[in-house]
């Protein structure tokens, strides 16, 4: 299991920019988990990751634009030697002052249930808090509400409802 502390160390050893997640996973000690906020993500690799959790495909030019205009882009990588593999992703949009909304949270199914989704969300929240953002929101699919609850997210605080408008 990966520990769920907030501890991350800056990575020099891997040759990739990012922060290493400290791990007590003895079985996995030849690989390292790295978080990055770099935006140079291979869109095809991201599409493959989203495919693995069954998300509907989106036009890559729009995904590229969404990443470009996001306030924060977080990627999670498994690093083995000189190779890295994209295993998680999240991004946030923001008004740069008060509010941020987290989108597209995904962990590769082969890496789920090891505490990595939680660690990636904590990293994302830490980055938003370090930018002095105090109001962090997201839209949870029904089956993951409790995942977010465990991270401290509240459903409908003070009766506030998420509302949606769709074109007809
Ligand atoms: C949701 C998701 C990101 C969770 O990632 P993960 O790496 O498996 O989660 P973790 O192992 O870090 O789990 C952290 C905690 O949440 C719990 N948890 C994980 N998935 C859960 C779920 N679907 N429902 C309720 N609790 C969940 C775990 O049991 C764990 O609890 P603990 O802290 O008491 O041990 C991952 O399952 C995923 O990518 N799902 C498909 C995409 C998706 O639905 N994204 C969210 C869109 S809103």
Structure summary:
The protein has four helices and seven strands.
Which ligands occur here? Answer: coenzyme A
Order of helices and strands: EEEHHEEEHEH
CA radius of gyration: 16 Å
Strand content: 25-35%
**Category by helix and strand content:** alpha+beta
Distance between the termini: 46 Å
Principal-axis shape equals globular
User: Average pLDDT, to the nearest integer?
Assistant: 92
Low-confidence stretches: none
The total of helices stands at: 4
DSSP helix fraction: 10-25%
Molecular structure report:
23% of the residues are buried. A hairpin with a 2-residue loop joins strand 4 (72-80) and strand 5 (83-94). The protein has 168 residues and is an alpha+beta fold. Helices cover 24% and strands 27% of the residues. The chain has four helices and seven strands; from the N terminus they run βββααβββαβα. The termini are far apart. Residues 53, 105-107, 112-118, 140-141, 143-144, 146-147, 150 line the site of coenzyme A.
């Amino acid at each position: 299991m990966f520990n769920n502390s907030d501890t991350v160390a800056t990575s020099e050893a891997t040759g990739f920019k990012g922060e290493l997640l400290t791990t007590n996973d003895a079985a996995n000690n030849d690989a390292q988990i790295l978080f990055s906020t770099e935006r140079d993500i291979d869109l095809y690799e991201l599409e493959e990751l989203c495919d693995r959790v069954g998300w509907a495909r989106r036009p890559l030019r729009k995904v590229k634009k969404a990443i470009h205009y996001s306030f924060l882009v977080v990627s999670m990588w498994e690093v083995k030697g000189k190779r890295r593999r994209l295993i998680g992703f999240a991004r946030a949009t923001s008004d740069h002052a008060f509010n941020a909304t987290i989108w597209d949270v995904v962990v590769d199914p082969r890496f789920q249930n090891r505490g990595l989704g939680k660690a990636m969300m904590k990293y994302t929240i830490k980055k938003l808090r370090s930018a002095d953002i105090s109001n962090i929101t997201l839209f949870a699919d029904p089956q993951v509400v409790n995942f977010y609850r465990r991270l401290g997210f509240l459903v409908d605080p003070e009766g506030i409802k998420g509302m949606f408008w769709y074109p007809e």
